[in-house]
Structures are given as structure tokens and as C-alpha cells.
Amino acid sequence: MSKKIVISFLTIILLLTVGIYVYSYLLHSKEEANDTIKESDTELNNSVISSPYTVKENKYYTVYIKGENGSATSFVPLKLNPGFKNDSDYHITISLDDNGKITNGDKIIEIDHFTISNSNKEMIKKIAGTENYDEAVKEIEDRLIEIQKSAKIQ
Fold first, then answer.
1. What pTM does this model have?
2. Where does residue 50 rank: exposed (0-12), middle (13-18), buried (19+ CB within 10 A)?
């Protein structure tokens, strides 16, 4: 009978040890999963707070033309982009917010209704410099006329 008691006692200890180990493992896994979720939520919240829009920095200066009926088109002026290569990836993204405002306008010259404003001209002068300003404005004006005729955007 004492042999049965020892075997029963060892069996109970073994079962308790395995049970505690399994409980500890499951509890640790659950805590790890919660920590991962909290970290993901924190990263997501931080990215949303710091930048509500995904904005890609443009490599080239771009002219973005807005028409009256909500239509728009864009082009890359060569005088403002001396190293521009006409390849498949222009490295240009125009991001708009919910109100249609450009969110990444650091290298975008926004022209309304085919009219180059004074602020547009100032930006062109900063980019091209005073020595290349006239040629750059002429190139943009010519392209505006060409686009307006071919696309009939008003």
C-alpha cells in the first residue's frame, strides 16, 4: 500500500508541475500577444497623429494645373529640372487631402485655370534663378497653351 501512495503522490506532483508549466506558458504567451497589440496600436496612433496623410517626397519640380470643372493635369518642366530623365518612374506623387488641397507641395507649382500667378512666378524664380527665369516661365507658358488646346481643359 505504501508503494501505491508513493506512486500516487509522485503522479500528483508530476501533474501539478506540468499544469503549472502549461499555465505559466499560456499566461506568458497571452501577455506577449497583448504587448505586441499595444505596441502596434501605439505605433499606428503615433503615425496617424504625426502625419494624417502618406506623403512621398518628390524628386522633380512639377507644374500642376487645375481646371474649372475639377479636372487637372501636370507636367515636368525641363528648365526647372536639369537632370530630368523621361523614364517610367518620374518620382512624382501629387497627394491631395479631402478638400482637394495638395499636401506635398514643396516641389509642386500649382496653377489655377492656366494662369501663372505672382506667387508662381516667385517660386519659379527661386528654383530657376534670375538668369534662367525668363526661359523657365516661357517653357511653362508654352506648355500651358499646348495643354489647353489639346485637352480643352478650361
1. 0.58
2. exposed
